[in-house]
């Protein structure tokens, strides 16, 4: 009976269309990533592209079929709630990334786009050091999540064959 139940669950799961995300297939062979100097999102994006795609990263814009430009990256926090005594109870952490994708000719494949991520962090004055660590961890998580989302969006781009040009018969 247990085997039949297990088999039924497996068949239902397969029939619903569930599928693991898998790796991204980018529609171009070479990619140049431009990002604010010293910002860790550039490192995350490079790592993701190398690990999960067959696209090769190049160090020169002119050699790339596509150019990913990270235009701005900001993170901040805002007070969400305050106790009756004026103490902060919750912060909202915000992480914003603005990017665009260009082809080798400079035409936009993805126009300027912004990802905005938010996390709510409860706060207590008794655990200030622990909350600072938690905040750093949440910001790092949002940064990694935004890099994942950017790579998935790059994989969804429909690109005409870049090297194909009309041939003229003499």
UniProtKB/TrEMBL annotation:
Topology of the protein relative to the lipid bilayer: Lipid-anchor
Stored PROSITE patterns: PROKAR_LIPOPROTEIN
A Pfam family reported for this protein in Swiss-Prot or TrEMBL: LptE
Tree of life domain: Bacteria
GO CC annotation terms, alphabetical: cell outer membrane; transporter complex
Subunit structure: Component of the lipopolysaccharide transport and assembly complex. Interacts with LptD.
HAMAP family: LPS_assembly_LptE
A GO biological process held by the record: lipopolysaccharide transport
InterPro entries in alphabetical order: LPS_assembly_LptE
Family: Belongs to the LptE lipoprotein family.
Annotated localization: Cell outer membrane
Membrane listed as a keyword: yes
PANTHER family: LPS-ASSEMBLY LIPOPROTEIN LPTE
Function comment: Together with LptD, is involved in the assembly of lipopolysaccharide (LPS) at the surface of the outer membrane. Required for the proper assembly of LptD. Binds LPS and may serve as the LPS recognition site at the outer membrane.
Key words, A-Z: Cell outer membrane, Lipoprotein, Membrane, Palmitate, Signal
Gene Ontology MF annotations: lipopolysaccharide binding
Signal peptide: 1-24
Name this protein carries in UniProt: LPS-assembly lipoprotein LptE
């Amino acid at each position: 009976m247990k085997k039949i139940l297990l088999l039924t669950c497996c068949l239902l799961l397969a029939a619903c269309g569930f599928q693991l995300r898998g790796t991204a297939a980018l529609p171009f062979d070479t990619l140049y990533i431009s990002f604010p100097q010293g910002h860790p999102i550039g490192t995350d994006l490079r790592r993701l592209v190398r690990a999960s795609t067959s696209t090769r990263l190049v160090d020169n814009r002119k050699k790339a079929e596509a150019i990913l430009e990270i235009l701005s990256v900001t993170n901040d926090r805002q007070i969400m709630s305050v106790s009756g005594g004026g103490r902060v109870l919750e912060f909202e952490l915000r992480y914003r990334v603005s990017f665009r994708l260009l082809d080798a000719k400079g035409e936009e494949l993805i126009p300027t786009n912004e990802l905005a991520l938010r996390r709510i962090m409860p706060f207590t004055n008794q655990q200030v050091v622990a909350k600072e660590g938690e905040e750093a961890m949440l910001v790092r998580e949002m940064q990694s999540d935004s890099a994942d989302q950017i790579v998935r969006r790059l994989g969804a781009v429909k690109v005409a064959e870049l090297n194909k040009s009309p041939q003229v018969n003499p």
